[in-house]
Request: fold
Amino acid sequence: MDKLLKLLCEDARLPIETLATMTGDTPEGVADKMQKMENDGTILGYRAVVDWDKADKEMVESYIDLKIAPKKDFGFDEFAELVSQMPEVKSCTLMSGGSDISLVVEGHSFKDIALFVGRRLAPMESVISTSTRFVLKTYKKQGHTVSSSKKDYREMDI
Reply:
């Protein structure tokens, strides 16, 4: 099963027949294993890795670190579950070190992210502090190198 998961992580669009050949299993066996892993939550979904700059879609990604004060009956898990339901939040993890919760948040502009932090995250009762960092340029995303052959007019010598 580990080999199947690795292959799916590398390319989730591989046909079942190809996966069967590569794992030494039957197509039916691979399909059954995939279905079981989807049902038990091992496989959470299948997604395309997109370079939004090339798609000409305005998308701002930020990393937001939160320090929170867990309360009785509302600890880290409950806070993370609540924040994870917000559509802007693409990833939510419990961290060791200087912050408690780390979020990956997407918006259409820096202002969208600022309003999200200022109006939705910071006012939450458990939140002690936030630290927001914006992604300026991506070189590698989920194991894929992002190549930017197109020069932005702001990078050109004038």
Observations:
- The chain is about 30% helix and 20% strand.
